[in-house]
Amino acid sequence: MQRQGPIVRFVRLLIAVYAALCLLALWLIPASAHGWLGVEPDPLAAVLALLLALPWSFLLRLLGDPGPWLATALLAVGMALNLWLLWRLQRGGHAASDPPETT
From its phi and psi, is residue 44 left (phi > 0), alpha (psi between -120 and 50) or beta? Predict the structure, then answer.
């Protein structure tokens, strides 16, 4: 087993922070709408989720007005796709089951 270098650990920490921010942003949308835990109603509560789901959140414009539940679900899918892409990039673009290329 290889030891992880400091750069790999740092990138994994950034991925974990991004995932935590995504969960917080998705929780903030209904929390703001319903006043959960004393959160004040804010019409801009979804802006953080829109930013974290970029560039996939631009696709919401193609749908017109999909409604709050579908929009939130699509933002969650965009965030999950970003997380998957970040994870693949930090692994060098290949899965653990892929054999290493030999030259």
Answer: alpha
